Amino acid sequence: MPELPEVETVVRGLRAAGLEGAGIRDVLVQWPGTVAGATPAAFIRSLRGCRICRLTRRAKYIVAELDNHRHLLVHLRMTGQFRIEPPATVLDAHDRLVLILDDGRQVHFHDTRKFGRFQLVADPRQHLSALGPEPLTDEFTVDVLRRQLSGRRRRIKPLLLDQTCIAGIGNIYADESLWLARIHPLRRADTLTRTEINRLHQAIRTVLAKGVAAEGTTLGHGATNFYSVAGRRGRNADALQVFRRTGESCPRCGHIIARLVVGQRGTHICPQCQPGRKH
Ligand SMILES: [Zn+2]
Question: CA-CA 20 to 30 A from 170: which of 10, 133, 230, 266?
Fold first, then answer.
């Protein structure tokens, strides 16, 4: 599932393709479930003739600010991908929604699993205000992280995945951050020491920034994996230290990397660097 670095890569790819400033001539909804909060017909009516003013990211949402004072929120969920195609490109079976631009180019939303969603909203804050701080912005200080974790009895890994705690972290970057910070994923958040929280803060920023710089993580070679708008693989997979490296050696201490399940998610740790739960 695309996480902060992958969604950021998609936003940058859409900008690079010139979508900021582009007009939307028409919209095709091939799978009605892709549209949330309105009927496909109403969605198409509202979007046709609009211009995209600005593209940004908030957590794992792509936010397109339109010239009619509305915002289009897009969530890629499991397998959503954008591709920019020339005019009159024939759709494939997994293209769920298409924006036809004024210049004839087609923005295809390709989504094998069909969980991706498009929603038009008047006030994005209503939909996004519950999300936690953006970990790569200046607002995400170590004090902010300490506040987000204080008094929380939950295990640290599920809490990192909770978008209301910190925005944009998913399974890959949670495992990598906890390994880098040398914290066991089952530690209760309210038992982390100041030193550990400092390390975790630094680790989250390091791991996510590396992911963005490498244009995301593409695991394996299936078509449903992450690809940028330009169709490129993210280069971060080789830089992963523990994620899906069960049985390999920890790059820090040489101990064998183990897999456990935390909150139904496959979780990868170095049992030596990330000593067991204390609570
Ligand atoms: Zn280790």
Answer: 230
